[in-house]
């Protein structure tokens, strides 16, 4: 389908975004990323080397900038100052790159976002010239506030980060999608391909995932499955599913036939 994902005015063929953490080594991360056919790849600046540590393996060696759009994220940040500082560091390391994924966490156990701190950090970063894709909870009101603050994409969780629990509250996701004028991407909670397809069938514009692929027994195969599920879910959403009915409806009705 000629159905690109558009974020901050840039078109992408793939609606699947992937992370680079939790793999056994860089080679596995490289192979899984390639199998996913993702074009946007998120990296945790506080945990990944993209040049700030010259004596360590550089993630850019397996994720060349001429092939992938990097999405630096603020994973591990629990306050506004740390999140803003991390985004500014990423911009410096990547020669002015301004597309970032903001997350300000509020709890170490669940990794739920601190939504008030997230909104404050988003406002600072937008004023500072960043294009902010923002991780948030599945609250439609907060999603709207973040959009109004100037975020270029809103990324509600489907379930806690790394939980693999799937879409816990589809009705809130639907509400966010219905009210949004910027792309909505499910971020966190997807565990397997059926979760990805369901998320896309709700009408979200894309999905970001890491653990669901990296923690699979065969990450490369799972990455391929997630690619296919994302495509299938989007196609099903665009096609429009049949209405649900309480009773059977024959595939080949006999009305009007001759005996």
Query: How many beta-strand runs?
Result: 10
Assign an overall shape. Answer: globular
Please tell me how large the radius of gyration is.
19 Å
What summary fits the major beta sheet?
Answer: 5 strands, parallel
How many helical stretches?
A: 8
| Regions with little confidence, pLDDT below 50 for 5+ residues | none
**Arithmetic mean of pLDDT:** 92
The strand line-up of the biggest sheet is: 5-4-3-10-9
Secondary-structure element pattern, one letter each = EEEHEEHEHEHEHEHEHH
- Portion in strands: 15-25%
What's the N-to-C terminus distance?
43 Å
Instruction: Determine the fraction of residues in helical runs and give it as a percent range.
Output: 25-40%
* Structural class by secondary-structure content: alpha/beta
Concise synopsis of the structure shown:
By secondary structure, this protein is α/β, with parallel strands linked by helices. It has helices spanning 26-36, 80-93, 115-127, 140-148, 170-179, 193-201, 211-214, 219-239, and strands at 5-7, 10-12, 16-19, 40-44, 69-73, 99-102, 131-136, 153-156, 185-187, 206-209. It has a 5-stranded parallel sheet with strand order 5-4-3-10-9. A 3-stranded parallel sheet has the order 6-7-8.
Structural commentary:
The protein has 259 residues and is an alpha/beta fold. The chain is 35% helix and 16% strand. It has helices at 26-36, 80-93, 115-127, 140-148, 170-179, 193-201, 211-214, 219-239; strands at residues 5-7, 10-12, 16-19, 40-44, 69-73, 99-102, 131-136, 153-156, 185-187, 206-209. A 5-stranded parallel sheet has the order 5-4-3-10-9. Strand 1 and strand 2 (10-12) form a beta hairpin. Helix 1 (26-36) packs parallel to helix 8 and helix 2 packs parallel to helix 3. The longest helix has 21 residues, at 219-239. The termini are far apart. The model has no long low-confidence stretch (mean pLDDT 92).
């Amino acid at each position: 389908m000629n159905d690109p994902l558009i974020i901050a005015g840039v078109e992408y063929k793939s609606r699947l975004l992937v992370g680079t953490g939790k793999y056994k080594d860089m080679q596995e991360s490289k192979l899984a990323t390639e199998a996913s056919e993702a074009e946007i790849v998120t990296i945790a600046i506080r945990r990944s080397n993209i040049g700030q540590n010259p004596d360590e393996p550089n993630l850019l060696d397996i994720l060349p900038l001429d092939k992938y759009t990097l999405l630096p994220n603020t994973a591990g940040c629990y306050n506004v100052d740390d999140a803003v500082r991390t985004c500014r560091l990423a911009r410096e390391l990547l020669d002015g790159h301004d597309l970032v994924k903001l997350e300000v966490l509020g709890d170490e156990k669940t990794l739920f976002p601190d939504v008030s701190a997230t909104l404050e950090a988003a406002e600072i970063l937008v004023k500072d010239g960043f294009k902010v894709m923002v991780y948030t909870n599945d609250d439609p009101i907060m999603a709207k506030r973040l959009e109004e603050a100037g975020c270029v994409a809103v990324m509600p969780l489907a379930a806690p980060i790394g939980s693999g629990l799937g879409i816990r509250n589809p009705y809130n996701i639907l509400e966010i999608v219905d009210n949004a004028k910027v792309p909505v991407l499910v971020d966190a909670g997807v565990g397997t391909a059926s979760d990805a397809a369901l998320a896309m069938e709700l009408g979200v514009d894309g999905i970001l995932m890491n653990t669901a692929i990296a923690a699979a027994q065969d990450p490369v195969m799972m990455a391929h499955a997630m690619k296919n599920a994302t495509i299938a879910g989007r196609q099903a959403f665009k096609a429009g599913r049949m209405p649900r009915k309480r009773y059977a409806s024959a595939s080949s009705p006999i009305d009007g036939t001759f005996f």
